[in-house]
């Protein structure tokens, strides 16, 4: 049976790739974007199989309205994908209050509002699958991306709790953690803080590291995501691509080593 998807951030990047992949195989998609004009090509190609809805995920009321419109149009929701988000580049000292709040409101609170809107529908159906698009930056932190890391670490914690809360109702949750794909995440979509020269050595090191990496075509993710949503028992977490594995394994090994090394001191707090 064809699935009904609700996907945020479908104007470009991974959200657009997954919307097209779902539509191409005969599914139907509620495609959310801030500018619905960016969805004209989807509507022209797939006609009534796609419902474009205007949504800035920071607006809770708009999120509820968009989800309700999708449910009214197609009668149910099978897959809810919280994909909308962007990168905020800058050392913590460099960030303005507005930049910090906008990052968290988009990358963390946005998925919360959409999830809150969708959950009553999914629970009433007794089934559904929520995909939360995190990042390898939700597993390991990187300099000059502190607020982005905070937004994705927060999303991971929120989603792990959600998975436990929603499972009794038959609703599954998967945290999708992509590697560095060739989306616009670091381009026009990104926000950059006013640079402080004190952090230029870090920026130079990051540029050097990035120069040696060729981004993967985001279309390579489509097959894995379609297989994921078709799985009878989907995982709580899924990397996209093999790039994140070495980073995650190193990060967790270092954490375990530190906790174990300081266990004796930790134990003194039991008394």
Which structural traits does this protein have?
271 residues, alpha/beta, Rossmann fold, 48% helix
Mean pLDDT: 95
State the major sheet: 7 strands, parallel
Overall shape: it is: globular
Q: In percent, how helical is the residue content?
A: 40-55%
Based on the coordinates given, report the CATH architecture. Answer: 3-Layer(aba) Sandwich
Portion of residues in beta strands equals: 15-25%
Strand order of the largest sheet: 3-2-1-4-6-7-9
Using only CA atoms, what is the Rg? Answer: 19 Å
Give me the secondary-structure category.
alpha/beta
| CATH-defined superfamily | NAD(P)-binding Rossmann-like Domain
Distance between the termini: 59 Å
What is the helix tally?
A: 9
Q: Uncertain spans, ≥5 residues at pLDDT below 50?
A: none
Q: Enter the CATH topology name.
A: Rossmann fold
Question: What does this protein look like?
Answer:
The chain is of the alpha/beta class and 271 residues long. The protein has one domain (4-245): NAD(P)-binding Rossmann-like Domain (Rossmann fold, 3-Layer(aba) Sandwich), CATH 3.40.50.720. 48% of the residues lie in helices and 15% in strands. The protein is built from nine helices and nine strands. The strands form two sheets. Strands 3-2-1-4-6-7-9 form a seven-stranded parallel sheet, with helices on both faces. A two-stranded parallel sheet has the order 5-8. Helix 4 (97-125) packs parallel to helix 5 (146-166). The longest helix is centred in the middle third of the chain and has 29 residues, at 97-125. The protein is globular, with a radius of gyration of 19 Å. The relative contact order is 0.13. The mean pLDDT is 95.
